[in-house]
Amino acid sequence: MIMVVGGLWAFINLILAGLSYVTSGDNPDEIKKANDKMIKSLIGLVIMFGSFTIAGILGYILYGDATAIINPKIYTPN
C-alpha cells in the first residue's frame, strides 16, 4: 500500500513539475526548480522499483522463491 501511495505521489509530482516547466517561460530559476523536482521524482521511482528488485533477488537467494520476502507466509497455531 505504501508503494502505491509513493508511486502516485511521484507521478503527481512529475505532472506538476512538467506543468511548472511549461509555464515557467524564460525564468531560469523556475526552470531549474522544475528540473530538480522531475529528477527527484524519477529517482524516487527508481528507488521504489529497486527495492522490489532487491527483495526479489534476496528472496530467491535465501529461500529459493523470489516472492518469499515480498509476500511472506505467516504461520499460525491452528
Structure description:
The chain is mainly alpha-helical and 78 residues long. The chain has two helices and no strands. It has helices at residues 2-23, 28-63. The longest helix is centred in the middle third of the chain and has 36 residues, at 28-63. The protein is elongated. The mean pLDDT is 90.
What class would the helix/strand composition place it in?
mainly alpha
**Which strand-content bin applies to the residues?**
under 5%
Our Rg estimate from Cα atoms comes to 19 Å
User: Overall pLDDT, averaged?
Assistant: 90
Largest beta-sheet details: none
Number of E strands: 0
Provide the succession of SSEs: HH
Poorly predicted segments: none
Shape call: elongated
Number of helices: 2
Fraction of helical residues = over 70%
- Span of the ends, CA to CA: 28 Å
Summary, kept brief:
Helices cover 74% and strands 0% of the residues. It has 78 residues and is mostly helical.
Secondary-structure topology with pairs:
Elements: H1 2-23, H2 28-63
Keywords for this entry:
78 residues, mainly alpha, 0% strand
